[in-house]
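Hi P.,

Sorry for the delay on this. The queue was packed all week, but I finally got your sequence through. Input first:
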Amino acid sequence: MTQPSDNNNKLNNDAADHDAKADATVGEGMQESFLSHLFELRDRVIKAGIAIIVVFASLAYWAPDIFHIFAQPLLSSLPAGGKMIVTDITGSFFVPMKVTMLVAFLIALPWVLYQMWAFIAPGLYQHERKLVIPLVVSSYSLFIFGMAFAYFLVFPTVFNFMAQYNAPLGAEMSTDIDKYLSFAMTTFLAFGITFEVPVVVVVLVRMGLVTLAKLKEIRPYVIVGAFVIAAVVTPPDVLSQLLLAIPMTLLYELGLLIARFYQPKKSAEDIADDLKDAELDKARVEAEQQSQV
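Then the structure:
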């Protein structure tokens, strides 16, 4: 009488052992997969870092010349005999090196973005890959255009505008190189991000997070927001605020124009629902017109 019971217990134990081994195998596989991704991420970060260091090392010898080009918009606005000053003991060394590191990062940024792309690409669908590459290229290009806009147009305009106020005061315009670096970095970042507005608009519409009609509807609020952001991140003068707010508004309009070609395709059910809603709206309007008659 006890033999069938022993057999059942043995089968249950074997099944439990098999499930435990299967769970252990799955856990080991997940751990190995996680570690392999972690190692690949480490390799990608190292490759990106090496690229930046190599470019920086190649440019370090010309750091003073690079800083001179970087400071040219301010130097050209100084009065005759005007110079920049150094108030920190190590400023004359570290500030040009920081500028050179910034230039090295911008030069190596395509390689850095490629390393990011190579890491995430295996986990994307084919249609997502087709969307990511144009977005990365356009984001990099627009960020560079934003920095160029600040360097060639905003800096000379703002510095000449500010220099005019020094003459009536009898004050000598002598800017510390570290303060100029902080100002320039903030301005570059503000205009670089501002020029990303078309990319943000296209992504929002393409992902279906916001409809194009809704973005057009909130246009007045976007314009007000652009001037508020410009007032916060730019120097306290109207001219520099306009130089940021107006391009931001125009870029938003450009994003709306481009987003028309990236709207998600509607399914047959969505189209049928839209047609039904249109017919209901038409019938309601006709009913209101007849009631008025």
